[in-house]
Automatic annotation (TrEMBL):
Provenance organism: Methylophaga aminisulfidivorans MP
Name of the protein in question: Uncharacterized protein
Length: 42
């Protein structure tokens, strides 16, 4: 079982036209992220 990392406690604000989403399998493995999600991680 994988270990969960702690949350950063930081809130990031984005404009209303940004939609951040991802899909996962039941075990919590991310299988897809959209371009806005990828941009937010940078």
């Amino acid at each position: 079982m994988s270990k969960s990392l702690p949350a950063t406690g930081k809130e990031l604000k984005y404009s209303d036209d940004v939609s951040i989403f991802s899909t996962t399998i039941k075990k919590g493995v991310i299988t897809y992220i959209n371009d806005d999600f990828l941009s937010a991680r940078r």
